[in-house]
Amino acid sequence: MRVLVTGADGFAGIWLVRRLRKDGHEVVAAVRPDRPLWVGAPPPWDHKVHTVPFELLDAASVRGILSIGFDAVVHLAAVASGGDARQDPTRAWEINALGTARLAEELGRRRTANDEETILMVASTAEVYGAGSDRPRMEEEQVAPCSPYAASKLAAENAALEVHRRTGLRVVISRSFPHTGKGQDERFVVPAFARRLIAAKRGGLQEVRVGNLTPVREFMHVSDVVSAYVDLLRHGVPGHVYNVGGGEAVSLNDLFLRLAAIVGVAAEPKPDPDLVRPADIPHLVGDASKLAALTGWAPSVSLQDTLAEVVNAQTR
User: Fold this and answer.
1) Number of domains in the chain
2) What CATH number has the domain bearing residue 117?
3) Residue of 259, 176, 154 lying closest to 213 (CA atoms)
4) Residue-wise DSSP of 168-205
5) Is the pLDDT of residue 40 over 80?
6) Quick one: pLDDT at residue 183?
7) CA–CA distance, 200 with 286 (Å, rounded to integer)
8) Is residue 198 located within the same domain as residue 101?
């Protein structure tokens, strides 16, 4: 397949481009023109990947890149940090919702005009479920986003699915639960905890600043999430939503303790009000039975190995 990956210079995007190339696909990696990857840094993938500048909010940029023609588009470009979205909700809505609507609309127009059979896989988030029960979430549950990030991602889902119903564009939605791994930005909880714990060990500190440690999450390895994306490109049913979640629940307190053990430090967590997220979701763990039944997908990397990878990446 020829696959366009938007947001290819992001955390999951880099892993996905490498996986698609490993599987023998032709890949066009769309990156922000103001990012170091485009303006001078060497790309983190092989030379056969065609890297192009792409601005999701620029209609001409969207039309231009889609004129190349693709068998599939994996749409990862987004404001992916909940913290960034809270600081500038309007920007999150513009990029996540309006940007996705523009991309889907252009693909739908080409589907109607040229009978193109492009697959559009939109990477959404499990945070659209909001603060529900403490059971693993399933796709048919009511969605109730409680942050600008989650709300704008749900709008992106709706925009793409509306184009699917109107034009026949083959749209598949993935709702990914938390994932991490080497290379994730320290705005996210696992690398943030790892960095603070490593600093505590090096500085002989007895306390580490933390936010609320009561929420329960799961943390998959990013390679498992990327594998699910590849499976959905091959087998996803247009118009359907699929959870990508491993189902292994862990409280943030237990996560902190497990990372501390890997780092080898006995520092205690110290609550810091500045690190507490407003309207945090108490329990967010996924049921991916629908995806597993369709593709046989299951996570392959243990949580312990995933956490060790993040720590080791920061201590080299």
Assistant:
1) 2
2) 3.40.50.720
3) 259
4) --EEEEEEEPPEE-TT--TTSHHHHHHHHHHHHHHHT-
5) no
6) 93
7) 33
8) no
In a 13 Å sphere around the CA of 266, the CA atoms on its Cβ side amount to: 0
> In angstroms, how far is CA 74 from the centroid of its own chain?
11
Phi/psi-derived region of residue 168, left when phi > 0, alpha when psi is between -120 and 50, beta in every other case: left
- Kindly state whether residue 292 falls inside one of the protein's structural domains: no
For 249, counting Cβ atoms within 10 Å of its Cβ (0-12 exposed, 13-18 middle, 19+ buried), the class is: middle
- Mode of pairing for the β-strands spanning 220-221 and 250-251: unpaired
pLDDT attached to residue 13? 97
Same domain, 152 and 200: no
Q: Same domain, yes or no, for 210 and 226? A: no
Q: Examine the pLDDT at 92 and tell me if it is beyond 90.
A: yes
114 vs 129, higher pLDDT: 129
Structure tokens given for 30? 């769309």
pTM of the model: 0.95
Look at 64-73, 113-122, 148-157, 169-178 and tell me which has the smallest mean pLDDT.
113-122
- Domain carrying residue 308: 180-217+248-286+301-315
Amino acid at 163: V
